[in-house]
């Protein structure tokens, strides 16, 4: 099968297209014929070796956290899945297994979810990692409840746009930082107060919007880009940062937060992720949540896609077209 592989961790030059054997699904695994693979910041970090603290690389290695496609085969003890079903998932890359930048990938059955009828393959591939990260930050770590207030830092990114929609669906009031060009777009997602992060005055605007501070700040950017995050919280509030894996980014200062009667947490999606992804899928199916704007590139442009994401120059959420183009011609049902 065709795959984008690495023979060692490193920069863009270590990624190459090669032919490798099709994986055999082990007991409890589903073999997916890949139609589309989502491109995430975690992918280039995986290529460069940032995940070495969490997993063992076995080279050659196929990267790629997110997949959409069709069930091709199932391993022993798999129930509920048969060949031909349309599915999406977060792969087992985090456990050292091959990922989605290939024509086939084997994934734990507990992470596989049926694609909602309203989504095509490219849209589905854009969902798992950013939506699961947003869910983890808002609910698993942030404990968000109806009626609470949330500030999403980085509302224009994939994690941020999912966080805005998930928080709104949960009955929260949402403000978000973004570039000026994205403000109107975030309003359409339900954000009550989009804030141009370049304009300054974020703290005053948030305090006027949520007197006394917000219940939850979700930092979807990290790397010290929200230095006044604790100032924006009400007493007892929580600042949750999405784990970036970037060297030197240890997240918010828990000791300082405790001194001020506030809390902090780091969020990341946990394996297996199927239970959470099914809840997100249900919201996608009702239209309460929708994927971000997407641009597709062929698998052969995987290195370019990672370069665009790493540099911050991606024009939209990037997805790799891996399977036959006619599969993505599936028409969204109105």
TrEMBL record:
Entry EC number(s): 2.3.1.41
Pfam families linked: ADH_N (PF08240), ADH_zinc_N_2 (PF13602)
Gene3D superfamilies: Medium-chain alcohol dehydrogenases, catalytic domain, NAD(P)-binding Rossmann-like Domain
CDD domains per UniProt: MDR_like_2
Keyword NADP: yes
Keywords for this protein: Acyltransferase, NADP, Oxidoreductase, Transferase
Uppermost EC category: transferase
Record has Acyltransferase as a keyword: yes
GO MF assignments: 3-oxoacyl-[acyl-carrier-protein] synthase activity
Domain Enoyl reductase (ER): 10-320
UniProt-recorded name of the protein: Phthiocerol synthesis polyketide synthase type I PpsC
Organism encoding this protein: Cupriavidus numazuensis
Gene name of this polypeptide: ppsC_4
């Amino acid at each position: 099968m065709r795959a984008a592989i690495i023979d060692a961790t490193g920069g863009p030059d270590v990624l190459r297209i090669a032919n490798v054997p099709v994986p055999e699904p082990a007991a409890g695994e589903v073999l997916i014929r890949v139609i589309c693979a989502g491109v995430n910041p975690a992918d280039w970090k995986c290529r460069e070796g940032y995940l070495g603290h969490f997993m063992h690389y076995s080279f050659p290695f196929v990267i790629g956290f997110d997949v959409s496609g069709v069930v091709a085969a199932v391993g022993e003890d798999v129930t509920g899945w048969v060949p031909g079903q349309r599915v999406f998932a977060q792969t087992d890359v985090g456990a050292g297994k091959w990922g989605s930048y290939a024509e086939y990938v084997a994934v734990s059955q507990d992470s596989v979810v049926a694609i909602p009828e309203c989504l095509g393959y490219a849209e589905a591939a854009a969902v798992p990692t950013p939506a699961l990260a947003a869910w983890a930050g808002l609910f698993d770590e942030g404990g968000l409840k109806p009626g609470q207030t949330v500030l999403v830092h980085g509302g224009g990114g994939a994690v941020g746009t999912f966080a805005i929609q998930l928080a709104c669906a949960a009955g929260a009031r949402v403000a978000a930082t973004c570039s000026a060009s994205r403000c109107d777009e975030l309003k359409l997602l339900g954000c009550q107060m989009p804030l141009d992060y370049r304009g300054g005055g974020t703290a005053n605007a948030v305090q006027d919007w949520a007197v006394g501070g917000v219940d939850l700040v979700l930092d979807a950017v990290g790397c010290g880009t929200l230095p006044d995050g604790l100032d924006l919280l009400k007493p007892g509030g929580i600042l949750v940062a999405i784990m970036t894996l970037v060297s030197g980014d240890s997240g918010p200062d828990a000791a300082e937060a405790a001194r001020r009667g506030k809390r902090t947490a780091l969020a990341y999606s946990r394996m297996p992720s199927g239970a959470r992804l099914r809840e997100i899928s249900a919201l996608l199916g009702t239209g309460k949540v929708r994927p971000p704007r997407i641009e597709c590139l062929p698998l052969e442009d995987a290195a370019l896609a990672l370069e665009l994401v790493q540099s911050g120059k991606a024009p939209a959420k990037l997805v790799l077209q891996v399977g036959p183009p006619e599969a993505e011609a599936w028409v969204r049902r109105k």
